[in-house]
Design brief:
Helix content is 41%, strand content 20%. It is α/β, with parallel strands linked by helices. The model has no long low-confidence stretch (mean pLDDT 94).
Length: 384
């Protein structure tokens, strides 16, 4: 399979596929296309606009990089939206697969009736490679007893049982996701494989150019220290704690970039802090490309709260990272950052970044981890 042009289908009916983002279901198809393969993305009819999930029309179009994007409406409009979104039944998926005839299918997530369609296609076409991937864990899914039992242990486990013999591998992005698959689906270890979220490793010349450009735009001197915090900013992300802890740092050479959207629960307080500290710059919601530019211009990535895919992108940009000690984060910290679990440890971590040699040491370690574990150019080849 490695030496021929493949037809690769990414099924993204549970991820609100959004052009230009840095999520796995964006980057992998792009890399597949760069590697010379035909690529199809099948998504639902929602996407992110300024950080919020928004309805978008059904389409069948070719994106600028040559990837074909098909958006399918879910059936069952007489059902409540909550149930319709759990079922994720897109009747056009079977026809799309039969017309496209993929050599490789990657179904992003182990939820929804799309699993039956890809499983049936694989059964009829056994030479096709079928992979499922899962990002779900108890931090982001199955939050209630009802959800854990009805949605996962009964409905989704039943779907898995219908197709399990036709699946080549189930790919999990973290140790918590692996535990979730074992607990909720009872998937056997021999069918599981670690497949981390990734990023693009920037070379030094490219990073230096981006750093200079962005810092000039923001009027930040090259020698100053820039922290960056990203995502949908709320209490779980501990965004206010980041801003308040930064405010305790009296170093005028420190700057904090916030790339994302303040959710209502913190918006009023966050905007007040912004007015009080000119060193904090709120950038709003950013496209994937713009976010990489801001990461390249920064010296440290702060993620002391809930998990984010931007962590891997930051490591690939050579940033030291300050993160909460989730079990899945252990793999990503090896001399390139610090674990923080409370406000005191967060403030202590920030103070350490006044040392340029310390930053350089951690940055070199992040670059090694990015090259050896997280490069999407290497990860993409594994599904060929």
């Amino acid at each position: 399979m490695n030496n021929k042009k493949l037809r690769i289908a990414h099924i993204c009916l549970a991820s609100s596929y959004t052009e230009g983002m840095l999520y796995q279901d964006n980057i992998l198809p792009d890399v597949n296309r760069d590697d010379g393969h035909e690529v199809l993305v099948v998504s639902d009819c929602t996407c992110y606009v300024d950080g919020k999930i928004t309805k978008t029309p059904a389409v069948d179009k070719i994106l600028p990089n040559g990837v074909r994007l098909v958006r399918l409406e879910f059936s069952g409009k007489i059902l409540p939206a909550t149930i319709r979104n759990k079922l994720r039944y897109a009747p056009g998926l079977t026809h799309i697969l039969e017309e496209y005839r993929p050599d490789v299918i990657l179904h992003h997530s182990l939820v929804g009736l799309g699993l039956l369609a890809v499983g049936q296609y694989k059964k009829k076409n056994p030479a096709t490679r079928l992979y499922l991937d899962s990002h779900a864990d108890l931090n982001n899914s199955g939050q209630s007893i009802l959800s854990r039992w009805l949605q996962y242990k009964i409905f989704n486990r039943y779907l898995w049982g219908c197709i399990s013999k036709n699946v080549d591998k189930v790919l999990y992005v973290s140790s918590e996701a692996c535990d979730f698959l074992r607990q909720m689906y009872r998937i056997k270890d021999e069918q599981l494989e670690f497949y981390p979220l990734g990023g693009f490793v920037l070379d030094e010349k490219e990073k230096a150019i981006l750093r200079t450009q962005v810092r000039e735009e923001l009027s930040i001197p090259d020698g100053d220290i820039v922290f960056i915090h990203t995502g949908k900013m709320n209490n779980l992300k501990r965004t206010l704690e980041v801003m308040e802890s930064f405010g305790e740092q009296k170093n005028e050479n420190y700057h904090l970039l916030l790339a994302g959207v303040f959710e209502n629960e913190i918006k009023e307080t966050a905007e007040r802090i912004l007015k009080e500290d000119a060193r904090i710059k709120y950038l709003g919601w950013q496209s994937g490309k713009s976010l990489i530019n801001y990461l390249a211009a920064s010296d440290c990535y702060l993620q002391p709260g809930s998990q984010s895919a931007t962590l891997q992108a930051a490591i690939c940009c050579g940033l030291p990272v300050v993160v909460y000690p989730y079990p899945s984060h252990v793999l990503y910290l090896n001399g390139n950052g610090l674990f923080v679990s409370d406000r005191n440890s967060l403030m202590d971590a920030m103070r350490r970044f006044n040392d340029k040699k310390y930053i350089e040491k951690l940055s070199d370690a992040s670059k090694r981890i990015g090259r050896n574990l997280l490069d999407y150019r290497i990860l993409a080849k594994r599904i060929y």
